[in-house]
Amino acid sequence: MAAGLFEGQYVWHPAADDRRLASVCVDVRAGRYLSAHEALAETRGDFGLRAHRSLVLASEAADSDLAERWLAEEPTPEAALMWARVAVLRALRAADAKDDRAEALERIAITACDRAATMAPADPTPCVAKLAMARLHDLRDPAPQGLLTQPPGPWQLFSHILRLDPWNREGHHRFLAFFFTRYGGSVNAAWDVAAFLSQRAPASSPLRLLPLVALVESYNPSQLLVDRTWEQPQWRSTALAIYQNWLPEVPGYRFTPVLDLAYLAHALFMAQREFEARAVFMAMGPYACRMPWSVFGEPEEQLSRARRSCGLPVPGSA
Question: Which domain of life does this protein belong to (predicted)?
Answer without folding.
Answer: Bacteria
